[in-house]
């Protein structure tokens, strides 16, 4: 009888603090099991799906789907607040992260009441903005209303707002994301 190999990777998303969830030091929530002829092995690499909890409040999460080439950042308490980034949008966001960090550092150091410090296009009507007086990095999709000039844009409900600590945590995870999901590392070259 031929030998069979079964690998199962399960990633759980739970908002309850009452249920212990296995996690790694970087707030990645993963439960994985692999069985080879009755014995356990390690998690397969590269991963097809990862799930990270961002920041101190643990309300924002980052989901990565390698097979679909998307990163989704969403709010657990408001499930309709999310943004989906393709590999191209992810690459563009990563290309402007130094500019965003410089604005955040300026706001923290010199002018915490600074209303807006950065606005940049990351593709397909998606924009990233640093909102100083709320201490947030917004990633939002916009649209052009019918009959209006091209420069007139309105925000859609598709977007997410990250506190500065959540943004910092996201950037700390970039190396791990690129190691586990090479499709995103390749898009940033």
Comma- or semicolon-separated keywords:
single chain; 189 residues; alpha+beta; four-stranded antiparallel sheet; 5 helices; 35% strand
Topology of helices and strands:
Elements (H helix, E strand, L loop, with lengths): L4 E6 L20 E6 L2 E2 L8 E6 L5 E6 L4 E6 L6 E5 H9 L1 H13 L8 E6 L2 E6 L4 E8 L10 E10 H9 L1 H7 L1 H6 L2
Antiparallel strand pairs: 1-2, 2-3, 4-5, 5-6, 6-7, 8-9, 9-10, 10-11
Written description of the protein model:
The chain is α+β, with helices and mostly antiparallel strands. The protein has one domain. Helix content is 23%, strand content 35%. It has a four-stranded antiparallel β-sheet. Strands 8-9-10-11 form a four-stranded antiparallel β-sheet. A three-stranded antiparallel β-sheet has the order 1-2-3, with no helix packed on it.
What would a concise description of this structure say?
With 189 residues, this protein is α+β, with helices and mostly antiparallel strands.
Number of helices: 5
Number of strands: 11
Task: Write out the strand line-up for the largest beta sheet, numbering strands in chain order.
Answer: 4-5-6-7
Order of helices and strands: EEEEEEEHHEEEEHHH
Query: What general outline do the C-alpha atoms trace?
Result: globular
Stretches with pLDDT under 50, minimum 5 residues: 1-43
Tell me the major beta sheet: 4 strands, antiparallel
Straight-line N-to-C gap: 46 Å
The tally of domains stands at: 1
The whole-number mean of residue pLDDT values reads 76
Rg over C-alpha atoms, rounded to the nearest angstrom? 19 Å
Helical proportion, percent range: 10-25%
SS-derived structural category = alpha+beta
User: What fraction of the residues are assigned to beta strands by DSSP?
Assistant: 35-45%
